[in-house]
Design goal:
InterPro entries: Kinase-like_dom_sf, Prot_kinase_dom, Ser/Thr_kinase_AS. With 403 residues, the chain is an alpha+beta fold. It contains eleven helices and twelve strands.
């Protein structure tokens, strides 16, 4: 949307889709924000101020694909993802996989299930080609400046364990996600705030009544999810090994993609490589936080050096030399067992912020961290946060589509 449209209060074409659908969604039990209600008038026009100072001045992120809403049954903030099916008789892979998950392919209540739950699949009225996937509101997980940054090494390991166990559960069911990358992992950061936060401006409350301080992951554990199952496949391993044509997915740094770009590859070792690449690029270095796949101005996080042997094996050039996900989990657990009490509660990245001067770091950041860890110890909070239970769905537990 152009700046001119933003000031005048005109909606983009993508937003008008949601505004037109708003009355029907309300009948289905979902209320969109004021901006997308019939008869909406921009609140900032009368006051002659910037629209960004007002709640209704914020356009939905990626409005052509996503919209946030409040579920009437429990006042929970959810997200709807619009998915288009060119041929209604032949659903897309993403739609088929999500329907399979909802039908119990992987039980929702399995504590190792980290596939984002789809609460409901709505078919847009008078449009057999468009469906809405209703899911929990999730946010960026990025370890330093995301919506749920890590304070301690233990919190980072909690993230790693959750993602490993989520992929392990998929692999045990002969499923490869096939697009594991940093932005296909998200976090339910709701436990970190006392009140619901705004889906677009994460520094403000949903009702725009003020700001809210972020709480500790150690004391208020969060759950991480795999999203985007548009490339996901369940393989019939009884008829032969799983095969995919090289070059699929967002992370193209996979060695076999480069050595045999026109050939076939086993997707399960590819998945192991990509997991290792995420840990290397976001937790062990700043390689992918600043310049994806570029080695310029890279910072090394020595607090995570202990992960190097495992990650190196996960990223072996020869896919046959990479460990399976079960072997990864066993080795990860052994690594964690070898870490001391103080290591797990140490600062995740003690020297990342170049703008933080020596005095602030020495006399504020590190002493404050020490005091907070004493409080966590006295409160008997585990150094590695446990995995929370999955978000509840208050309706549609049978898995059928709604019309």
């Amino acid at each position: 949307m152009s700046a001119e449209h933003g000031l005048s209060g005109d909606l983009s074409d993508d937003e008008r889709f949601w505004k037109d659908l708003s009355p029907w969604l309300k009948e289905r039990g979902y209320t969109l924000r004021a901006r997308y209600q019939p008869g909406w008038k921009p609140s900032w026009l009368k006051k002659n101020r910037s629209p960004h100072l007002f709640e209704d001045g914020h356009e939905a992120y990626a409005a052509g694909l996503l919209i946030d809403a409040v579920r009437a049954s429990d006042k929970k903030i959810v997200v709807m993802k619009k998915t288009t099916v060119p041929d209604p008789a032949n659903p897309t892979r993403e739609l088929r996989m999500n329907e399979s998950f909802r039908s119990g392919l992987i039980p929702v209540d399995n504590p190792h299930n980290h596939c984002v739950p789809v609460y409901e699949i709505l078919q847009v009225p008078e449009n057999d080609n468009t469906h809405l996937l209703v899911m929990p509101l999730l946010r960026d997980w990025l370890p330093y400046w995301g919506d749920a940054p890590f304070d301690t090494v233990g919190e980072a390991l909690g993230f790693v364990r959750q993602i490993f166990e989520g992929v392990q559960l998929l692999h045990h069911n002969r499923i490869a996600h096939n697009d594991i990358k940093f932005d296909n992992i998200m976090v339910d950061s709701g436990p970190l705030y006392r009140r619901p936060m705004h889906p677009i401006n994460s520094e403000r409350r949903y009702d725009w009544s003020g700001k809210e301080s972020r709480r500790s992951i150690t004391r208020h554990p969060v759950k991480y999810y795999l999203i985007d199952f548009g490339s996901t496949v369940q393989y019939d391993l009884d008829s032969g090994p799983a095969q995919e044509r090289c070059g699929y997915g967002g992370d193209r740094s996979v060695p076999e993609f480069k050595s045999n770009p026109e050939g076939q590859c086993d997707p399960f070792p590819v998945e192991i490589y990509r997991l290792g690449h995420i840990i290397q690029g976001f937790l062990m270095t700043s390689l992918q936080m600043d310049e994806p796949d570029k080695a310029r101005n890279v910072k090394v996080n020595h607090a995570m050096d202990f992960m190097s042997p495992l990650v190196t094996d996960m990223m072996q050039e020869d896919p046959k030399k990479r460990p399976t996900i079960d072997q990864v989990m066993l080795r990860f657990d052994e690594v964690v067992k070898g870490l001391g009490f103080f290591k797990l509660r140490a600062l995740f990245w003690p020297d990342f912020d170049d703008e933080e001067n020596f005095v602030v770091r020495t006399f504020w950041t590190k002493p404050r961290h020490f005091v907070l860890q004493i409080i966590n110890i006295l409160g008997r909070y585990p150094a590695i946060p446990p995995t929370p239970s999955p978000p509840s769905s208050s309706k549609d537990k049978k898995g059928e589509k709604k019309k």
